[in-house]
Request: fold
Amino acid sequence: MITGIRRSEFHFTTVTTLGWVLEQHISGLVLEQTLRDVDNELPVDPHTEELATFRRDIQRPFEKKALERRSVAGESVLVERFVPTAKMNNTRGALRTYMLEQFAVSPEEAFGVLPGFVSIWPQRMKELANPTVVDGLDNPWYTYDYGHLGRGALADGESRHLACLYINADKNVSVALKDKLLNQLVTVEIYHGVSQEQAAQMFVDLNYEGTPVDTITKANIDPRNKWIAATKKIFDELGIKYATTGRQLTATHQNLGEWILLTHAEQMVKAIVLGPNQALVKSKRTDSWDGVDFDRLHKAAVTWFGEIFAHFGGHEVLADRSRVIRTIAVRVALASLGSAFYRGDEPAIAAARSTLNEVNWVVSEAWQGIGGKVIVKDKVATMSAGSGKESIARAVQAVTKPETKAGRAVRGNAQSAES
Reply:
């Protein structure tokens, strides 16, 4: 049982000890490890699995995948392992020190404050009226029974929670200091009976609107972005892994089997409905998907993208420096031909397939100024994969209009292109 001030039918505020927070919430690190066990088809606790799945899309991780080279049977191989993120390093380092040296002993010996926790339970707690009355507080008090639900998870405060767990397990910290820390009072905002989407929306707004964060991280976990949701579903069906971190595709991403940034994949999907130019526009407007038939979009994208990657012998072409499809502008221009599949326009579908076969997609001087800047060194041509906005107009012209100078050039008709 816990007593708090009712804010709404699914939200109440309570003041309790830090020890209660530790006892009643499963750590974020444990939930991450549970998800990995689920992915590896290992047995896990059903309640922990539910919470882990609930939290999957609303937290930045404590650990991330990395590759290291090891000697196995005399051969050097890349082995996947998990390494601490900056979030984990802060939890074990500066945050742990702060909790011990300032918060645990305040206010008598040091000055320390701790932000409130935000706690979530997917299930509803049993709400019992409480006769407590406090002058100046309009909200009624209730006692909440959660004993039948098991432990919850934190939507905010998981680093503080884990830092305290590390402190509590440290034999070098005195029992007296641990008791002081665990008996400090903290505020907890508890949400119960909320959906995964509601919790994710709350977390995104709580953590990212006031603090700058990279576009791809926010896009990956914000459930309100229907383009991203559609993109994930499309590329998952195609069996193409996408990167959800970083601003550029790196060798590490490729070694992990991730061949395209999620936001770049989103541009390809948007190009089918919005056209190539609008696909590159970063907009916060949610009405950009008004009227979009996402079932039809899914079918069109899976079909057209599947044909594209089959033509090039696999989706690894997305990172192939010898092919122009690696560049954003060309990739989006080619993807936009999928609008024919979305509309069910058979003549346009035939034209799209012809384009795929007619164009010479190998990087060459013919693409100079069309898909990007081409540099030839030792008879090998490479193309910069710069901003798509600068070259999208020429790329679209070259891909979609064979009668133009650019269109003739990339189809191998360099001589006629000069005329």
